[in-house]
Amino acid sequence: MTEHDITLTVNGDEHGLSVEPRTLLVHALRDELGYTGTNVGCESSLCGACTVHMDGDAVKSCTVLAVQADGADIGTVEGLAQDGEFHPIQESFQEEHGLQCGYCTPGMMMTATAYLEDGGSTDRDEIRHALEGNLCRCTGYQNIVNAVESAADKMGGASGAD
Amino acid sequence: MSVKTIDPDEVDVSEILGSAIERREDPALITGEGIYTDDIQRPRMAHMAIVRSQYAHARIDGIDTSAAAEMDGVEGIYTHDDLAADHTPGDLPFMIPTGWLLPDLKQVEYPILAIDKVRYQGQPIAIVVAEERYQARDAAGAVDVDYERLESVTNPAEAVSGDAPTVHGEAPDNVAFDFELTGEGDVDEAFANADTTASLSLSNQRLIPNAMEPRAAVAEFKPGTGELELEMTTQNPHLHRLLLAGVLGFPEHKFHVVAPEVGGGFGSKIHVYPDEALACWAAWHLERPVKWQATRSESYLSDAHGRDHETDVEIALSNQGDILGLKVDTDAAMGAYLSTFAPAVPTFLYATLLSGQYDIPAIYANVTGAFTNATPVDAYRGAGRPEASFVVERIVDQAARALDVDPADVRRRNFVDPDDFPYETQVAVAYDSGDYDGAFEKALDIVGYDAFRERQAAAREQGRYLGVGLSCYIEACGIAPSELVGELGAQAGLWESGTVRFSPSGTVMAYCGTTNHGQGHATTYAQILADELGVDYDMIEVVEGDTDEVPQGMGTYGSRSAAVGGSALVESARKVVEKGRQIAAHHLEADESDIEFEAGQFSVSGAPDRTMAIQEVAGAAYLAHDLPEGMEPGLEATSFYDPANFTFPFGTHVCVVEVDPETGDVAIEDYVAVDDVGNQINPKIVEGQIHGGVAQGIGQALFEGAVYDENGNLATGSMQDYAVPKAMDVPEMELEDTVTPCPHNPLGVKGVGEAGTIAAAQAVVNAVEDALSPLGVDPADLDMPLTGETVWRAIQNAEGGS
């Protein structure tokens, strides 16, 4: 099958690679570039485990073709911590016990950070709405909502409940 | 109230047991560093895809692999004939074993690749191995199977009705087993003497586990050493090694099974399936690493499903409200084959729990195991116990209605008295300890039960339908002792092993045969051992999930890890301390009986300045220059802990709902859970387990359900069609606890992994029925999931009939 040369900038590092036209972004990240922190749960955009940032937006990388992401800035869970310090969302997920098996967690955190960076509300119902594209089977969501609420507080930029 | 976590560095070792410390598992999982099975890459690794049956029931007239074999990257395509040709004639491996036998159980052959016939949609027929993941899937799609379709049956009651297609020739009536359980109490007499009775027919619908990580395997055979290594999504690597060794005809001692990070299980990663065995065979046959990763669609078709009961239940009552007797008749689906522990689930994990929290003098249960043309059913979170609690709590609500008393009062009147423990039920188990009233009254108090009844009455005046549902559940965890489970049909013991090993530098390694897939064992086991040994929490490392490192193990399921695995580690720690005491006595020149051990220090009684830290003792044990006469060097111990009994956690969950009579929509307004899981090692982890369990129970009550169409096609084969609850679907929960220690294990713990799932569904359904009681809705119309449509139809049916 024909391959295409593309460039992906992942967590600030530029990578050139050749992919089939049908290669999913998540498989390019995981299998070609070794960013295995992003998980695959359904390959149908329903579970959100594969959520990454693409040019600042949260996208489900199982329903983006790698060729569509050519030239894009991709953010994955591996890029959340900076200079050995956890991102506030990581800190809060640990403090609030927002994860159990951890499989949905990278996607959940990428959705939550995009939401909070966009100034999302800390109203708990709003947080739940923001996370409705990300499934978790372990936590019952309550401690995830707590974690997002707490991270919002640490990040300081999100708007309060109104 | 949410439990607040604590940084473990801020907790003194004397207080670490019972502290809600943050989990040590988390840093790897929140940075992407954790390695799940599909993250693993091996040099020369090939990929396997599985050709699965399109149909629920068909004869296979031919399999044409010629077109697929020509496709890019294809290394090989294999059917059952290829497996058979690869093995000694006359020897019959490649069959999935049944791990729990019942008297007169109809055992049927369960081949890892179909032989001549398929019996459920999704059954493996052939495998394709190719260089790349996509190539393997493409070629699997090009394998042409010639089917001759047969009539199918998927409902268990229909399957055993005497008028259904036969799934297996060995069981023409589709009856896998006919199981009865009763005690000394005379049930017929109880019903003959009853002032009133109530009855209900109910379904406990088929569920699909939906662990977020689909099952996966990476297998590698090493010809130079003859070793087979399998990294897989497993809840029990030793059990998988033992049983897969049998399936493959491969020597167990050359077989290394590893659980990397595992993304949830809920039972679905206990069982032995064809898929992982096939990955092993392919790797062995091809002498190169092979990866299989289920797609989500494959998970829906191939992970063992849960529940799927049709039940008639009847209760006998006195006018005073005493429960006199209970009769339960259940048809329980097995699916197309007997999965690993399937026969135990609707029998010894279900019928034995039918006394609930109540003192019931006579119980009779009859369970018919039914073969159906559907995915095999096996343990899914709760496994039998949610079904039992659902039956009991639904019929107790019917009893209250028959007696025209409040459901809370029937329960209060019939609880087993706290002074009556251990309490022998009429269904063959002895509850260890409990205080059912305590948890019940606490839950009712939190929810404001009496005030709610007033609010409910006022709301009804305004045409609003509020309801409250009670669920007083009982759970059985840590199924044991092994001798008993052997008598009941288990083909395995249900002990657990734990090794505690000091290093010469005084740090500790702990090895346990349980396996973590979200439960936080590395944290809780280190808490237990820090407390036992008086060693800093950070100086203790926990290893699980590797058959080469952990001596033996039975794995994690049935809420057993803390009660059985934790107890094994305690026993080993105590053995280590006893050996340490002898060494300390020798070095301190004191009599062993004068040596005290506290907070990691051995000291001479009455001479507190003569001390030796356990770390120093460890150093001396390995230095071995000066040990007591005849003592072996080293400081470690292994224990196989076999519990004296099950543990019986319990609690009361209360759900408050409002039902919109126009749409049938159910909104959960309040959810209160008071659970008693015995002593708690880490209350934050306990809280998380209950949250997650409740979410799965609410999922069953309102959203989830596997649906087969009339041809046996799974109509809910994706996350689009099968409603796993989302963040918006799960209410805020209010959790409280009571603590009644388990009297028969050294930690006093009972187990918490399944409590929420066991409790929640009937709390929700009882609340909906309560809300709709002014409309005269037939409770038999309230089969789960209570979608808007189901509730709306129940209301229409009531109004149409009025």
Plain-language structure description:
The complex is a heterodimer of chains A (162) and B (802). Chain A is of the alpha+beta class and 162 residues long. Chain A has 2 domains: 4-79, Roll (Ubiquitin-like (UB roll)); 88-155, DNA polymerase, domain 1 (Orthogonal Bundle). Chain A contains 5 helices and 5 strands, in the order ββαβββαααα. In chain A, 59% of the residues are buried. Chain B has 802 residues and is an alpha+beta fold. Helix content of chain B is 29%, strand content 23%. In chain B, β10, α7 and β11 (255-258) form a beta-alpha-beta unit. In chain B, α10 (385-403) crosses α11 and α16 (561-588) packs across α17. The model of chain B has no long low-confidence stretch (mean pLDDT 97). Chains A and B meet through α1, α2, α3, α4 and α5 of A and α1 and α18 of B.
CATH architecture of the largest domain in chain A: Roll
How many extended strands of chain A?
Answer: 5
| Percentage of residues in helical conformation of chain B | 25-40%
Residues in β-strands, percent of chain B: 15-25%
Task: Specify the CATH homologous superfamily of the largest domain in chain B.
Answer: Aldehyde oxidase/xanthine dehydrogenase, molybdopterin binding domain
Average pLDDT of chain A, rounded to a whole number, is: 95
Largest sheet features of chain A:
5 strands, mixed
Strand order of the largest sheet of chain B: 3-5-1-12-9-10-11
CATH homologous superfamily (4th level) name of the largest domain in chain A = Beta-grasp domain
**Name of the CATH class of the largest domain in chain B:** Alpha Beta
Derived structural class of chain B:
alpha+beta
Overall domain count of chain A: 2
Instruction: Give a count of the beta strands of chain B, DSSP E runs of length 2 or more.
Output: 28
Secondary-structure element string of chain A? EEHEEEHHHH
